[in-house]
Amino acid sequence: MAKETLKSIPLSENQTFEIEITSMAYDNSAVGRYKDFVVFVDRAAPGDKVLAQATTLRHNYARAKILEVQGSDPLYRIEAKCKVFKVCGGCQWQHLPYEKQLEQKNILIADFLKTLNISSDQIKPIIPSPDIWNYRNKVQYPVRTIQETGRLKAGYFEWHSNELVNIKHCPIQNNLFDEIIEAVRNIAEKYKIIAYDSSTKKGWLRHICVRLGINTGEALLTLVGVDLGLSNSQMFVSELMGKFPQLVGVCINVNNQTTNVIYGNKTEVLKGKGYINEIVNGIKFKISATSFFQVNTLQTEKLLSTISDLLQLSGEEVLVDAYCGVGLISLYMAKFVKKVIGIEEIKQSIEDAKTSLQENNINNVILINGKVENKIQQGIETYKPEVIILDPPRGGCAKNILNTICDSDVRKIIYVSCNPSTLIRDLNILCLGESNQRGFSIKTIQPIDMFPHSYHTECIVLLER
Ligand SMILES: C[S@@+](CC[C@H](N)C(=O)[O-])C[C@H]1O[C@@H](n2cnc3c(N)ncnc32)[C@H](O)[C@@H]1O
C-alpha cells in the first residue's frame, strides 16, 4: 500500500494496540474501533478488551490478531466446547453462548439488509436451531499423510490457510463421524492408503466424506481419490462395514482436477448402496453420495414449514422450485399446490428426486435436468407458474433468471439464501425490475439458523406483487 495512504491510518503494520470489541463480523472476526478506525480482530467477542497486533492495513479498515484478552464480558465470551476451536477454521463463533450468536446474527442481517427499502418489522427474529451440538449430518475432511508415521491426518483447514487440523472429535457433527473417520485412519494405514499430495502428484486419497440420515440411521462413506485404483479395496471396505452396521455403502468418487472442488464427476459403489435414505417431515428422500442435502436435518423441517407458512397457498397454484437438488422443497410443497416443476443441473440429484417421487407416491411433480438460467424461460412459458422458489448456491441467481421472472405472471417468490451479499444484489433486481419490467415487493424476511457456531446465516424471503 502507498505510504501516503498509510499516513491517514492510525495504525502501522504489526503495531500492537488496545481495543474494545463491540460486535461480531460476517467472518472469523469481531469489530472494534481504534481512534475511530474500523478494526476486525480475529476470534474476538463483543465486550472483549484485547491487546491486538495489526496484521493487514487497508485504507478504510484493518485486521488484527489477539495477543492477549485483557478483559471480557462473561455474557458474551465463554470457553469453546471444541478443543481445537482456536486453530480450526470449521466454525468461528463457539466462544459465544448460543443466544448471543443469535443476537449477533440478527444484528448482522439487519445491517446487511439496511440498503433495501423495507421496515425493520419486516425482518423477523432468527429461528433458532433445535440442536446446536451434533447437528451436522455430513462431514467432508481433506486428508494429508504424515511422512514420518504414515498416519492419515483428516480434518478442517485452519482459517484461510493450507494447514490441516487433525480432528479427532468435532462437537457440531454427529458423533458417529468421529468413530468412522478414526477407523478409516487406522485401516488406511494398515493397507498403505496414502493421501494425494498436489505438489508431488503422488498418493491417492483426497477427501473422506460421510453422510448420515439422522432420522433413518443410514450412513454412507465416500472416499474421494484420484482414480478408481484403491489398493486392497474389498478388504478395506469389508473391515470397515463389519465395524459399522450403520454403513449402508462405501463409494469411491474420482477427482483428478487441480481445483479445490471436493467431488469429481464419477462415483462408483465399492460395496452396498451408493446412497442413503433420509426422512424429513414424513417424506423419504434418496440422497446419493455427491448430491446436495441440507446439513442440519431437524432445522430443515422448520425451513420447509416456514416456506409453506409464508406462502399461504390455495392448492390451485403451479410452483417452480428452481435449484431443487434431490427435490427436498419440491416433494414437500407438492401437497400444497396443483403442480410443482423442479429444476436442477446435477443429473444424479434429479435421478434421486425421481426415485423419491415414486417411493412417496407423489404424482404432481415434474423434474427438469438443466441449468436454471437455460430452463426457466421455457418452464415459465410451458407451465405458467404463480409461485417460484429460488434456493441457489452462494453465488446467487444469474440476472437473466431474475429478469425472466419479473417479465412473467409470477405473483409470489420465496428466495432462500445462504449468502446475504448475493441475496441483496438479487433482491434489488427483483424489486426494481429492469427497464419496463414489473418489480416485486419484499413482504417478510425470516432468518433461520441452519449453522450454529458459524457466522453463516440463512434467510427466507417472501416477495409478492
Ligand atoms: C443450495 S442447494 C439447494 C437444493 C435444494 N433446494 C435443497 O434445499 O435441498 C442448490 C442446488 O442448486 C444446484 N445448482 C447450482 N447451480 C445451478 C444452476 N445454475 N442451475 C441448476 N441447478 C443448480 C446445486 O446442484 C444444488 O443442488
Q: Can you offer a commentary on this structure?
A:
This protein has a seven-stranded mixed β-sheet, with helices on both faces. Helix 7 links the parallel strand 15 (339-344) and strand 16. By secondary structure, it is of the alpha/beta class. It folds into three domains: 3-71, Beta Barrel (OB fold (Dihydrolipoamide Acetyltransferase, E2P)), CATH 2.40.50; 109-129 and 294-464, Vaccinia Virus protein VP39 (Rossmann fold, 3-Layer(aba) Sandwich), CATH 3.40.50.150; 138-280, Beta Barrel (OB fold (Dihydrolipoamide Acetyltransferase, E2P)). The chain is 25% helix and 29% strand. It binds S-adenosylmethionine.
CATH homology-level superfamily of the largest domain: Vaccinia Virus protein VP39
Outline type: globular
- What are the distinct ligands in this entry? S-adenosylmethionine
Backbone CA Rg: 24 Å
Give the CA-CA distance, first to last residue.
Answer: 48 Å
Number of strands: 20
- Helix and strand sequence: HEEEEEHEEHEEHEEEEHEHEHEHEHEHEE
Number of domains: 3
Structural class: alpha/beta
Query: What fold name stands as the CATH topology of the largest domain?
Result: Rossmann fold
- Per CATH, the architecture of the largest domain is 3-Layer(aba) Sandwich
Low-confidence stretches: none
**Overall pLDDT level:** 95
Helix content: 10-25%
Summarize the structure.
It contains ten helices and 20 strands. It is of the alpha/beta class and 465 residues long. It has a seven-stranded mixed β-sheet with strand order 16-15-14-17-18-20-19, with helices on both faces. A six-stranded mixed β-sheet has the order 7-6-8-9-10-11, with helices on one face.
